[in-house]
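Hi R.,

Here's the chain you asked about this morning:
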Amino acid sequence: MQGARIAHGRLTMQDGRSSRVIRLWLLLWLLATLAACQPMPDRATPPGRLILATTTSTQDSGLLDAILPDFERQANADVDVVAVGTGQALQLGKDCNADVVLVHARSREDSFMANDYGVRREDVMYTDFVILGPPGDPAGVRGMTDAAAALTMIAAAQAPFISRGDESGTHDKEKAVWKAASITPTGDWYIAAGQGMGAVLTMADEQDAYTLSDRATYLARTLEGMDLEVMVEDDPALFNPYSVIVVNPQKCRNTNIVVANQFADWITSAPAQELIASFGQAKYGQALFTPNSNIGLQHQSVKRER
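And the predicted structure, written out as tokens:
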């Protein structure tokens, strides 16, 4: 019987087939050794990074905390949120310090797009502005639906009024209402805070003052025991739409255009619009924002028909 035998302390083979087996084992050993020397591959693709410049209202209301995890999970992306006034958010886009913006000042958005700072703008949602005041209502504006008339009475009474004063979308709306009332507010009673919505609500509450606020942030802050009450609402002039804009990569080479477009696609999609529509229902008994992307509106229409 042919086989192996010991000769001078070595294993020798007495047929060619055994030699082939040895060579195969040597090859496998070599491949395993080379593989062991290679660095271990990442277990998962590193997440993308998106810089979102947005308004304080989307942050202070809690909306972003509620909906962004869904996008981060789907897109395998980390979203860095910079919450400032709309004017500052758009400036971050112009300065190439944001990939996408979520804002609410249509005239500023139009200028941003007209100057090619953005390549895509989509409607996302809307809420409304309200004029808030202390329970005592020293200017007597409670229940009014004409914002300009209400501000006229507040100015006549020289009742304390806290303005955002920060070139935000809310500040733009306030200035538009003062303009409609043909009033330039001045005097000790009118205080320009230069702060975000949350800080202004705190100041107005502490000083028994009036202020203009988006409804979403106001409702979110009522859980903290705020005394301010809604005085003026339901004026069409207080409509407050939000848009998403993707920053132009031709002007900003570092724009993460792929993830920015993914974000715009996501926030206007039916599932994300459902998240927006349901936000606030459990805590406040009402939605804080109303979705109004084209896809979201179509989806809501189909739901109503069913």
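The chain has three domains: 4-37, 48-127+241-305, 128-238.

Let me know if you need anything else.
M.
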